[in-house]
Amino acid sequence: MDSQNIYILGIESSCDDTSASVLRNGRILSNVVAGQTVHKEYGGVVPELASRAHQQNIVPVVHQALKKAGIDKSQLNAIAFTRGPGLMGSLLVGTSFAKSMAMGLGIPLIEVNHMQAHILAHFIDEPGFDKPEFPFLAMTISGGHTQIVRVNGYFDLEILGETIDDAVGEAFDKSGKILGLGYPAGPEIDKRAKLGNPKAYKFSKPKVDGLNFSFSGLKTGILYFIQDETKKNPHFIQENLNDICASIQHTIIEILMDKIKLASKQTGITQIAIGGGVSANSGIREALKNGEETYGWKTFIPKFEYTTDNAAMIAIVGYLKYLEKDFAKVSVVASARLRF
Q1: Averaged pLDDT of the chain
Q2: Rounded to whole angstroms, what are the CA distances from 155 to 113, 210, 213?
Q3: How far is CA 23 from CA 35, 37, 69, 151, 166, in A?
Q4: Which of 21, 189, 257, 311 could make an S-S bridge to 245, C-beta 3.0–4.6 Å?
Q5: What pLDDT score was predicted for residue 38?
C-alpha cells in the first residue's frame, strides 16, 4: 500500500442516484453518478424501481470511478458508504456492496450519515472554494430534508431546526406538479423564475415557532390559488407561468432566509454554509450572497456537483473518519431514518 496517500472509495445510494467516488487525501480524483430517468413518468421516485436500478448500476459505477481515478482497487485504504437516511431498498444495495467489497479486500468499512455528508462536502479540497471555520451554521436543503445545523466540529453537529412536514424540495416538486411541470420541478421553476416577476402574486408564509420549517401549508395555498384563478381564466397558468414560478420561488426563499437570519441572530454565528440538492437553486444562492453585504455573513456554497446526492461527499466523511480510526463493524445495518 502507498504509505504517503490515503485512498477512500465512497459509495452513495440513498435515493435514485448511484454514485461512486475516489478520494486521495481530501482531493477528489473521480465522482461518477448514474441517475435514473425511470421515475420521471411517475412524477416522483418509486422505491422498488430505484433499488433495482441501483443493483444494475453499482458495479459499473464503482468500476468507472476506479478507472477515472487511475487506481487499482488494491490501493484503497477504506470503503465509505451511506448508511442512511434514505430509501431502505436503495440503501441496502450500497450497504451490501460496500460490506462485501471491504471484506474481499480486507480493508476497513466506514458508515456515513447522508445529511452529515451534505454539510462536510465543504471540506473537500477544491481549488477556488474556501472551507468554513467552526462553529458555522449549515442549512441543508433537499428533496427529503430541510435542516439548520450548528456545526461545532466535523462530528459535533446539533440540529437547531428542521421541517415539521414537507421538505423544501418537495415544496418545489409539488408546486410544479400543480402547474403541470415535469419531475423534478425545481430546476424548471428556477429557470422560469428568472423570467418572471417575484412580486406578481403573494403567498402566505407558514407561521412556525423557532427555527423549524413548514411547507405543506404553502403547497395547499398555491393549489387553492391556482384552482381559483383557473376557474376565472382556463389559460391562467400558461399565460402567467413565469410570474407564478417567480412568486413561488420568492416565497420559498423568504421562508428559508427568515430562519437562517434568526439562527444567525440567536447564535451570533456569521459563517453560513448550504448543502443539499436545492442549494443548486440560483435564487437561494443569490439571496445568501446578498446576506454577506446585508448581515456581514461569510457564506459557503459548494461546487455544483457536490450539491446533489453524490459519493464525493461520502468519501470526504470517510476520509475524516479514517483519520480518527472510526470504523464500522461488518454487522452494521442500513437505517432509513438515521439521525446525527
Answers
A1: 93
A2: 11, 24, 24
A3: 21, 27, 8, 23, 34
A4: 189
A5: 54
Enter the pTM of the model.
0.93
pLDDT for the residue 6: 98
Count Cα neighbours of 317 within 13 Å in the Cβ-side half-sphere.
28
Q: What is the DSSP track for 248-269? A: HHHHHHHHHHHHHHHHHHHH--
Peptide bond into 234 cis (omega under 30): no
| C-alpha grid cell, residue 30 | 473521480
**SS3 of residue 159 by DSSP:** strand
- Residue whose C-alpha is closest to residue 118's, from 86, 78, 88: 86
Q: Which domains does the chain have, with CATH numbers?
A: 7-122+307-323 (3.30.420.40), 131-301 (3.30.420.40)
Query: 56: pLDDT confidence band, cut at 50, 70 and 90?
Result: confident
Distances (CA, A) of 166 to 146, 190, 212, 213: 8, 19, 11, 9
Give the model confidence (pLDDT) of 191-245 as tens digits: 999 999 999 999 999 999 999 999 999 999 999 999 999 999 999 999 999 999 9
DSSP 8-state class, residue 305: G
32 touches 20 (CB < 8 A):
yes
Taking a C-beta distance cutoff of 8 angstroms, is the pair 206, 218 a contact? yes
Q: What is the dihedral of CA 167, 172, 177, 181, to 10 degrees?
A: -150
If you ran DSSP here, which 8-state letter would residue 14 be given? Answer: S
